[in-house]
Prior knowledge:
Layout: E1 3-9, E2 16-27, E3 49-50, H1 54-66, E4 68-73
Antiparallel strand pairs: 1-2, 1-4, 2-3
Amino acid sequence: GDRVDLVSADPQHAGAEVVAAAVPVLALPVDEDGAPGVTGTGLGGRLIVVGAEPGDVARIADASVRTFLTVTLVG
């Protein structure tokens, strides 16, 4: 039920931009004990499945390979 903003930041340029706003979180990886956000490899926080609008998908994909993509919880 949480909603997040996906924020793109290029470490070689100043500033950041929201590439998708208020997208619903659909799934998080879980560890062996069922704790969310942690995988068996110990690389927690690296995967969040969101329900993006079709118009946001290309922008999210582009940002994910060109910049650091950060997830922020919408309050």
